[in-house]
Fold this sequence. Notes:
This protein is α+β, with helices and mostly antiparallel strands.
Amino acid sequence: MTAAQDLFAEGMRDHFAPALRALGLTDRRGAFDLPSPGHWALLGVRVLGRDEHAVRYTVTLSLTAKADWPGPGEHPDPNRPTGTERWRARIGELMPVDDEIWWEVSPGPRWLVAVEDSVAAVRHYALPELRRRLAAEHRTGPATETYLTATELDEVNAALLTAAVARIQRAELVGDSLVLTGAWSRSDPVAQQVLAGVAEGFLDAGDERFRQVRCENSLGRGLWAFHPPDS
């Protein structure tokens, strides 16, 4: 192996894997699993490219009901879609940049910084979302129903991007609310103002399935709630 590949293998073995185990994940032969009796909640490392100078990789996530997993293999591979997943994503979709994210390990005195940064991204973004998704699968309260697909949200998201506001990742019905999720921050007044306009449009549609529009960040934390003007 090249020096870059040696460093990548060392970084995964001696730093990345122990850190994820300390966060409560279990090694599952090429993947990391958030233990659950009924689901495979998995995190994988996907190598995007390698040569003698560097190894570039990203992190992938998937959630599959064990009852839906026919095999082959002990568990699904989060790097390979099977069509049985309840959810799958790359880590960049969960981060504020909402874009492709990768890390690069290359020889040099700071080679470990990339590995440590990827561990931090798992801790702050990937693992909370995986836990949220798993909790939603186990939830016994109001059911979650997709309101608009990603394709149906394209027009709304195009307007958000024009205003330099992160796109809507999910639009779901939860109880009497339409919940919009995206990589927004409570300290961003532009996002609040633009999303207020989006919420007004949804409320004006007169859909009786929801009475308010709530906005949450990518970690499921509530940001703003919007109601019809006469409520």
